[in-house]
Amino acid sequence: MPETRDVSVRARWTSIVLAAVTVASLTACGSDSANTAATGASASPNAVSGPITVFAAASLTGSFTQIGKDFEAANPGTTVTFSFAGSSALATQINQGAPADVFASAAPANMKTVTDAGNADGTPETFVKNQLVIVVPKGNPKNITTLAGLAQPGVKVALCAPQVPCGAAAQKALQAANVTVTPVTQEQDVKAALSKVTLGEVDAALVYRTDAKAAASDVEGVEFPESASAINEYPIVVVKNAPNKAGAQAFVAYVLSEPAKKVLTDAGFQAP
Amino acid sequence: MRRRRAPLALAVPAVLGLLFLVLPLVGLLYRAPWSTLPERLTEPGILSALRLSLLTATIATLVCLVLGVPLAWLLARVSFPGRRLVRALVTVPLVLPPVVGGVALLLVFGRRGLIGEWLDSTFGITLPFTTAGVVIAEAFVAMPFLIIAVEGALRGADARYEEAAATLGAGRWTTFTHVTLPLVAPGVAAGAVLCWARALGEFGATITFAGNFPGKTQTMPLAVYLALETDLEAAIVLSLLLLIVSVAILASLRDKWISSA
């Protein structure tokens, strides 16, 4: 993460301490899951227990936190911990040997990074889809109702950078609409683009419907037909070197089940 | 003459410390795609990002010198109520996560910010998403490094020279420019180097306050971060380029200072 380069002397101390604590807890988790897996295997082969570490795309923060709680309630003895970050950062971490059990990516491209490196167990499954909407400040002061509205003079627009999934989707949608938009900024992720609208620095941004829904108190989402040509699929997979493989498989199965689907669609995702 | 050996209690942690700082760089060098390096360096956008980085970091350092040296002098030489508090406030940008610093800057200088709204309505000036915005973000984050270095130099400097100048009839301004500044010049230089280096590597506040647009606000760290999204090797190349250019500039400046001294 770039922030680590940015930290001050004091913050660096904090991060060293945090790193030490994390390492300590990870090793603890490791031995824990090894023990429970061993005892679990001798007692009953189907029992799921122990800690499950899920690396999930930042856009899943709200819904996966809920799904994690539901999963824990349905499977006593399990604890689900999440690492929410950009999909590409998570893919890099997994390929560098991070102790993840499950990887849920916001884009097939980042999942491919992991499967290409041979770090996925089985084939990834798409569990939700997300599509773009235009977000504008409450009341839509610039009266933007279509993608073409973003190209008007005097309208400041934030898009995601083309390197990140929401930016690639935005390019596709704009191409489909045959509209050329010069944004004032290409943001590093969808939440950053959204925050430029909530802070009033830009007049509009293209973000996922789920993000617009989560920020509904500050912004309005404007649906547009071309978003259909830029639908983003979210794949999920068990990580090959998962410390808790049984737990990982159970969690993936739960995410694909009806109760989890309801949580996800309530958050604005579409069923695959 | 026999050299005295450093005591183990100092040598061991010193070497460990050096390794800790240098090993990540070794990691970058190890993973760098040396065979495709030349063509990667000539990719469009890289040079404009580098130019923008060097330009904004240098202007930000000048801004920090103009504002920071007087502030350091004030903290070191003038006793006023609340000086301790002011000294603590100076370190706020160090403690604040840079991204939060960027949001804070937006809340002040943004289109709806405390000062930004007035700037926009009165002069038609908007700072976010401009190169000037990059300079502001970098100066905000880097200035404490300069102030702390200069204040330390001022406190370490012998105040008797300034007193002597004063007894000889020099005013406070003349004393400052003719006695104090030359006395702490090495401290100012060290502070400026730290400040420049910090500005050059600035990411969080810049991308939050100034946004990211190639040629206008996309500095090298921003380009590195976005390259990392798709291509680890491109990110490594960009990081090494930034590193080599900055080390070369600092080394040549250092030689210049030492030879002229």
TrEMBL record, chain A:
Membrane topology: Lipid-anchor
Keywords carried by this UniProt record: Cell membrane, Membrane, Metal-binding, Molybdenum, Signal, Transport, Tungsten
Gene Ontology CC: plasma membrane
Gene Ontology molecular function: metal ion binding; molybdate ion binding
Primary location class: membrane
One example of a Gene Ontology biological process annotation: molybdate ion transport
Binding site for molybdate: S59, S87, V190, Y208
Location(s) in or outside the cell: Cell membrane
Pfam families: SBP_bac_11
Keyword Translocase: no
InterPro entries in the cross-refs: ModA, ModA/WtpA
Signal peptide positions on this chain: 1-30
Function: Involved in the transport of molybdenum into the cell. Part of the binding-protein-dependent transport system ModABCD.
NCBIfam families reported in the protein's UniProt record: modA
Family to which this protein belongs: Belongs to the bacterial solute-binding protein ModA family.
Subunit structure: The complex is composed of two ATP-binding proteins (ModC), two transmembrane proteins (ModB) and a solute-binding protein (ModA).
Protein's name in the database: Molybdate-binding protein ModA
Organism, as annotated: Asanoa ishikariensis
Automatic annotation (TrEMBL), chain B:
Cellular component GO terms, alphabetical: plasma membrane
SUPFAM superfamilies associated with the record: MetI-like
Sequence ranges assigned to domain ABC transmembrane type-1 in this UniProt record: 50-251
Membrane topology: Multi-pass membrane protein
Keywords of this entry: Cell membrane, Membrane, Molybdenum, Sulfate transport, Transmembrane, Transmembrane helix, Transport
Top-level taxon: Bacteria
Transmembrane feature ranges: 55-76, 88-109, 129-154, 175-199, 234-253
PROSITE patterns linked: ABC_TM1 (PS50928)
Principal location: membrane
Molecular function per GO: ABC-type sulfate transporter activity; molybdate ion transmembrane transporter activity
One Pfam family cited in the UniProt record for this chain: BPD_transp_1
Function (record text): Part of the binding-protein-dependent transport system for molybdenum; probably responsible for the translocation of the substrate across the membrane.
PANTHER family reported in the protein's UniProt record: SULFATE TRANSPORT SYSTEM PERMEASE PROTEIN (PTHR30406), SULFATE TRANSPORT SYSTEM PERMEASE PROTEIN CYST (PTHR30406:SF8)
UniProt cross-references to NCBIfam families, sorted A to Z: Mo_ABC_porter, modB_ABC
Family under the similarity heading: Belongs to the binding-protein-dependent transport system permease family. CysTW subfamily.
Subunit structure: The complex is composed of two ATP-binding proteins (CysA), two transmembrane proteins (CysT and CysW) and a solute-binding protein (CysP).
Protein name, as recorded: Molybdenum transport system permease
Taxonomic classification: Bacteria, Bacillati, Actinomycetota, Actinomycetes, Micromonosporales
